[in-house]
Structures are given as structure tokens and as C-alpha cells.
Amino acid sequence: MSRLAEALVQRILVIDDDARIRELLAEYLGGRGFDVETAPDGEAGLERLRAGGVDLVVLDVMMPGKDGFQVCRELRAGSTLPVIMLTARGDDFDRIVGLELGADDYLPKPFNPRELLARIQAVLRRTSPATLEDQVLRAGPITVDPDRRAVHLDGELVDLTTTEFEILRALVANAGRVIPRERLMELARGEEFAAFDRSVDVHVSHIRRKLGDDPKSPTFIKTVRGVGYSVPRDPA
To answer: 4-13, 72-81, 84-93, 123-132: which has the highest mean pLDDT?
Structure first.
């Protein structure tokens, strides 16, 4: 996997009517680098999915109202988004129905969170585009071309150092999501840095200046205090 792919923050939506399961997975998966959102039922889950920006769904089968099979059927009508189904019933019939509806994997309850994590990682590896590093990335007027190592703002070339380019590429690839400061340093230098390391802030300051961003009220690179940075999906 490329350094860029490793740096992406992937968003998981957990749809389950059991609040304990939602809290457990939000804490466990969130602590392992995922951005986790939750929904308490099928309708709320489908509403969130319509907004986009989700990379994988962990979907409970047995829920009041629209159950997991119905949610999976509606999702598959217009999306290939990866789905891992959970059920309190571990019989073959449920598993086969879920897979026939288009689920990518299936896990009976009770489950070990480590096994679910392994299955999530396996599904994401299978479904992630192999050419991610060569894709042209866009966020509003910003265009990042990894193949040519070029950044353009409104069609004008922006001259960035290698480290600045890697940081901006990760931010634009994750437009709309917050990238932790430590993760940006891993990408820029290929190793982990202590939380107090502020050199990434200096790099971001240089990128802002080169993009003509107002340091007091930036348009392109937003600061999320105590966490990291984010580029809006469509910065004005």
C-alpha cells in the first residue's frame, strides 16, 4: 500500500439499534485510525448514506423498522459501497441472504472487535482503487496531480516543496475530513512523531502562503484546534 493510501482517513458508518455496540465500535475503530459515525436504525443510516463520504458500512441485520436486509437491498440499488453485516443469528440462511443481497462479508454476534477490524481492513483492501496514487485530486479550485507532482490553483501552478506537496495531497485526498497533525507528519517524513512536534504547522503555514490563503481566516486549509487540519470539499 502506498504512503498516500496509508494516510487516508477512512470513514465507517455503523448502523445498529444496540447503543452498546455503537459505542463499542466508535471507540474501538476510532482508536485505530478510522473516522466512525453511527446510526440507530435503518432509516437514519440510509439518510446518512445519501449524504456520501462513507467508505464502508457495518450493518446490523435485526433492527426495528427497516432491517439490515432492506437497507442492504436499497443501498445496492445504486451503490457498490462495501458492507459488512452483523447478526445475532449465526445460521447459514441469514448469511447466504446477506451475501446474495450484495454484502461483502458477514459476522455473527457476539463478535470479537479485533476480528471485525481484520475483516474491515480486508474488505477495504479488496475494494480500494489500486491507482489511488495516480489519481488527480480536486477540492474546489485546487488540483493535485500526483503523477506530475504538480499543484494548480485556478489553473496556475503552485510551487511546493516535496514535503508541502505530500501534506497538501493528503489533505485534498481527504477533503471534508480532519487529518490529525501526527498523521500528516507520518506522511511527510515516513515515521511517527510526538504530538508536540510542531513542524507540520510550519509546513501548513508555507502552503497557505503559497496558495494566497489568509492566515487569520483561511479558505483552503482549516485548522481544527487540538486535532489537525482539513481542506473543505469545495472551498470558495
So the answer is: 72-81
